[in-house]
UniProtKB/TrEMBL annotation:
Residue intervals of the tRNA pseudouridine synthase II TruB subfamily 2 C-terminal domain: 242-296
Keywords, ordered alphabetically: Isomerase, tRNA processing
Natural source organism: Galactobacter caseinivorans
Residue ranges constituting the tRNA pseudouridylate synthase B C-terminal domain according to the UniProt record: 187-232
EC number of this enzyme: 5.4.99.25
Family: Belongs to the pseudouridine synthase TruB family. Type 1 subfamily.
Designated name of the protein: tRNA pseudouridine synthase B
Catalytic reactions on record: uridine(55) in tRNA = pseudouridine(55) in tRNA
Leading EC class: isomerase
């Protein structure tokens, strides 16, 4: 049964700067206590080792999270070349070490270039993707050999920021920035870069800097939120995600009851606002009329 919205708690999005060592569920639990409501969810899981932007919805704003999950994302990461791990990140066991002395900067640049654009990526076997109803990472933990299918993703930006050769040059650390479509696994990108160079690789650090229009500039740590709880209100959140349509009083009443109105100018999903600036509904054009896809206003 869905959790009831607490009418005494405002609705909105909380942009959290997640600390390392926490799960996304840990963040949701903490926000529930800070907001004073059970109706809280998040958009786009971050692994415990990762830090950065995790967008959390409170009360009615949880209904916007589905649309946030599909937004493009930006990351800063460190890839260690020369070591392959069981989890494709620093939390796993090192399975194989290979020397990177022969890898030149032109080799690295060429390998990165081949991973830009539209690619087919095999997700990490320890991802949360469900295989026959069971998470892939749980199947790995149970000793199963998990083989996931490649899926199309777009790497819009994959830029090298700095290259270091620690440990006497036995490994190579590559700091990168990645902008990508939803569903991209940065640890898989690290794996594929290492394999393209013939030396293996894994992720040692990951920080998400942006989800759609929400970035670190508006993010707050949980400690900061405990001192001063801040949300992006429901109407502003919707304006950040969708084209806006200003309604008349009559249109506001019609949409509030789930009825259709005259079509919107564009064909995309549109946020419709009352004359007072309240988010009434998300609407879409169907058969020459604007139909409510989600109604937010209380009847």
């Amino acid at each position: 049964m869905p959790k009831a919205v607490d009418p005494n708690v405002p609705s909105g999005l909380v942009v959290v700067d997640k600390s390392p060592g926490m799960t996304s569920h840990d963040v949701v639990s903490r926000v529930r206590r800070l907001a004073g409501t059970r109706k809280v969810g998040h958009a786009g899981t971050l692994d415990p080792m990762a830090t950065g932007v995790l967008v959390v919805g409170v009360n009615k704003a949880t209904r916007l999270l589905t649309f946030l999950v599909g937004q493009d994302k930006t990351y800063e990461a460190t890839i260690r070349l020369g070591e392959t791990t069981s989890t494709e990140d620093a939390e796993g066991e090192i399975l194989l070490r290979r020397y990177v002395a022969a890898v030149t900067r032109p080799d690295l640049d060429a390998a990165v270039e081949r991973l830009r654009g539209d690619i087919q990526q095999i997700p990490s076997a320890v991802s949360a993707i469900k295989v026959d109803g069971k998470r892939a990472y749980q199947r790995v933990r149970d000793g199963e050999d998990v083989q996931l299918k490649a899926r199309p993703v777009t790497i819009k930006r994959f830029d090298i920021l700095e290259v270091r050769r620690p440990e006497g040059g036995r490994t190579m650390d590559v700091d990168v920035v990645v902008e990508c479509t939803s569903g991209t696994y940065i640890r898989a990108l690290a794996r594929d870069l290492g394999e393209a160079l013939g030396v293996g690789g894994h992720l040692t650090a990951l920080r998400r800097t942006r989800v759609g229009s929400f970035g670190l500039d508006t993010a707050r740590t949980l400690d900061q939120l405990a001192e001063e709880f801040a949300m992006v209100d429901l109407a502003t959140s919707a304006r950040n995600l969708f084209p806006a349509r200003e309604l008349s009083a009559e249109e506001t009443a019609e949409l509030g009851y789930g009825r259709r109105i005259e079509p919107s100018v564009g064909q995309e999903l549109t946020a419709a606002f009352s004359p007072e600036g309240e988010l009434i509904s998300l609407v879409e054009n169907v058969n020459g009329k604007a139909k409510p896809a989600l109604v937010f206003a209380a009847n």
